[in-house]
Amino acid sequence: MPETSPRGLARLAFGGDYNPEQWPETVWQDDVRLMREAGVTMVSVGIFSWALLEPAPGEYDFGWLDRVLGLLHENGIRVDLGTPTVVPPVWFYRDHPEALPVTAEGVRHEFGSRGAICHSNADYRAAAANITTRLAERYADHPALAMWHVHNEYGVPVSACYCDSCAAHFRRWLATTYGTVDVVNAAWGTAFWGQRYASFEDVNPPRATPTVGNPGQALDYKRFADATMRENFCAERDILHRLAPGVPVTTNFMTALSQCDSVDYWAWGREVDIVTNDHYLITDGRRTHVNLAMAADLTRSVGAGAPWILLEHSTSGINWQPRNPAKAPGQMARNSLAHVARGSEGAMFFQWRQSRRGAEKFHSAMVPHGGTDTRVWREVVELGASLDSLAALRGTRTEADVAVLWDWHSWWAQNLAWRPSEDADARERADAFYEALYDRHLTVDFAHPETDLSAYPLVVAPALYLMTEAAADNLRAYVENGGTLVVSYFSGIVDEHDAVHEGACPGALRDVLGLTVEEFSPLLQGESVRLTGPDGCGLGGDVWTEFVVPRGAETVWTYVDGLAAGHPAVTRHRLGEGAAWYVSTRLGQEGLDALLARAAQDAGIAPRADLPRDVEVVRRSGGTGSYLFAINHTAVDAKVPLETSGTELLTGERAAGRLAVPAGAVRVVRLDG
Ligand code: GAL
After folding, report:
1. 547, 564 in Cβ contact below 8 A?
2. Could you tell me if residue 184 is inside a domain?
3. Residues 6 or more apart in contact with residue 435 via CB below 8 angstroms
4. Pairwise CA distance, residues 125 & 173, whole Å
5. Which residues are catalytic?
6. What is the Å distance from ligand 1's center to 3 Cα?
7. Is 234 annotated as a binding residue?
8. Per the database record, which ranges form the Glycoside hydrolase family 42 N-terminal domain (predicted)?
């Protein structure tokens, strides 16, 4: 059995992507000296090094990597060793130009960046297996090796290829999945617009068409592309497992990045030995620490709650957004430790030393262009010391209060063309509900809708347009057995093939919610509606309304105006021992808070009025005890009540009663007892 934490790493992971090949060897000595000064415990090496390791077909140069690994080992630094299969060398493409991916419009990408890969291509697969084998044979027993880092961020920058070899592979995938082409015809509803297929040979990827193509085909192509990338990951993983038994294998995820919507991380989480994630602050005007918390919670959840590792984040600004602000003083530590609070066994960065050349030279790093007489470096050294003092919490698990349902397949389906409104954005609702739960100081586990939910008093489904019968049965049983469920609009509409469930909407959830929806009535941009009810006066909705007809549910809030005036906007249905809430419009944060307050009351979750907004409090517990993280994202000092006394690990001070958390600071208390 492979291990599930980095081999030989007795501390939290602290370090980053280390790209020594970008620097003369004289710099390497300085690198390891500074790594020791900062308390670096692990670095990721060789992720983009294929062209250096195999400069010509079948010719290898491992000398430089031997020297790097040796130097790191001598200095007590563990290595997360990359398989460089995200960037095949130029000679590979010269010999196999058809391995370059093709867009839906038929344009073939060129060499000269990274990630230009057709994952169905047999020559790519063979070459990737070969370099992986060579690396594993050479380094399996290397004393510095802590874990393997396969590829880099599957799914970006190319999420699917539409070439002829993908077409052939897609047909094989369809034959395996469906058996006969008639089953495909039925699943995709090809009777519509005369799209019927007589044989698998006629089926192609969903390439550019004059107008909207078949949604079932498009949805299945997402599944196929995801499965194809996973085949390649598993092939490399199996080689590594065979040649380096026990050494854990990972690939770095990007769980909460909306641009990376092509990977079903529930499935990937089952294939890796350790879940790892990359997270960067998206500066679109929203509270970045909320998105960070969400990413960390989602990462922990796809690994079934087990400890995971933050493999990349940034010390300061990144360089791939239109505008890339620097991090404020102290923000890096708040970011890093928030990931640790939510289950990460460390904090690693892209990258160790800031590049002078190439596409990422304006991306921050642990060692900036300005060297060590810089704020970033001083904060890096400080963070290293902080992480060192937290080593005891390794293996503990983050405690969650509620579950939020999340399903990439539903998201893929909802994002297909020609829906009632393009403003009904699944990801937007997930973010909004998460933010409302965060502001109520509730820690979230994400859950697949078909998994056991009985541990959670409250389950929220912000957007589950696609819902299987199994998921609907699961939610019904959850409520009947005493759970409280909150469902937002346009959920439970279609099955796994994007076919509308039979009967009135929402077909999968009618009986759970105790209502039917006669019509969707999306609003135009800028339009909004007012709601009334016990505490709903003054609240409003936008984007979406519906003609809801209660069939057992009680009306809580009602539409005052708009086409749905007089219809229920928010309902509550008692079912068995539990209750199911439904909201049929897009509520803002105030409305979501009012809704969640009532649902939390049903669920028996007490409000946390004792905690200020943006003071994040999260607990990890397990073998070595219970740890309370308090992260003050505000500019004013705060106090956090402690249930028991304890020792604050970053300052070494005793803590009891009300813990002082200075503006912008982090405190981690190991609770007594
Ligand atoms: C990640 C990637 C790194 C680096 C980083 C910059 O997505 O894995 O190699 O490009 O972004 O933010």
Report:
1. yes
2. no
3. 287, 290, 589, 592
4. 17
5. 153, 312
6. 26
7. no
8. 17-389
Same domain, 148 and 218: yes
Residues constituting the chain:
673
- Cα of 350 vs centre of ligand 1, distance in Å, is 6
Whether residues 348 and 413 share a domain: the answer is no
One domain, residues 270 and 345: yes
Q: Has residue 260 got a pLDDT over 80?
A: no
Q: Which two tokens stand for residue 565?
A: 């005036």
Average of per-residue pLDDT across 17-46:
98
Q: Is there a domain that residue 485 lies in?
A: yes
The minimum-distance atom of ligand 1 relative to the CA of 156 is: 7
Residue 416 Cα distances to 215, 222, 430, 432, 498, angstroms: 7, 11, 18, 21, 10
Q: Is 283 buried (19+), middle (13-18) or exposed (0-12) by CB count in 10 A?
A: middle
Q: Residue 653 C-alpha to ligand 1 middle, in angstroms?
A: 38
Instruction: Determine the average pLDDT of the residues in 77-106.
Output: 98
- The reply to whether 358 and 421 lie within a common domain is no
CATH number of 663's domain: 2.60.40.1180
Query: Ligand 1, closest atom to CA 254?
Result: 7
Same domain, 506 and 579: yes
For range 425-451, the mean pLDDT? 97
Residues 249 and 312 in one domain: yes
Residue 523 lies in a domain: yes
CB contact set of 66 (below 8 Å; sequence gap of 6+)? none
Cβ(318) – ligand 1 distance below 6 Å? yes
Domain that holds residue 474: 402-603
Q: For ligand 1, is residue 152 a contact (CB within 6 Å)? A: yes
Q: What is the CATH number of the domain that holds 70?
A: 3.20.20.80
Give the residue from 400, 402, 428 showing the smallest Cα distance to 415. Answer: 428
Q: What is the rounded average pLDDT of the residues 460-466?
A: 98
Burial of 90 (0-12, 13-18, 19+ CB in 10 A): exposed
Q: Which amino acid is at 630?
A: A
Chosen domain end from 553, 580, 603: 603
pLDDT bracket for residue 68 (50, 70, 90):
very high
Instruction: Examine the domain organization and report whether 587 and 624 are in the same domain.
Output: no
Average pLDDT, the chain: 97
- The residues facing 641 across adjacent strands are 658
Segment 573-622, tens digit of pLDDT:
999 999 999 999 999 999 999 999 999 999 999 999 889 999 999 999 99
460 and 504 housed in the same domain: yes
Which of 334, 366, 392 is a domain's end point? 392
* Total-model pTM: 0.98
Rounded-to-integer distance, Cα 572 and Cα 551, Å: 11
Where are the alpha helices (H) located in 60-121, listed in sequence order? 63-74, 90-95
* Domain at 485, CATH number: 3.40.50.880
pLDDT in tens, 317-359: 999 999 999 999 999 999 999 999 999 999 999 999 999 999 9
In this structure, are residues 298 and 256 in contact, taking their beta carbons and an 8 Å threshold? yes
From 44, 318, 349, 360, mutation site for ligand 1 pocket: most ligand atoms within 8 A of C-beta: 360
Quickly list H helices, 604-659. none
Q: What is the pLDDT of residue 259?
A: 65
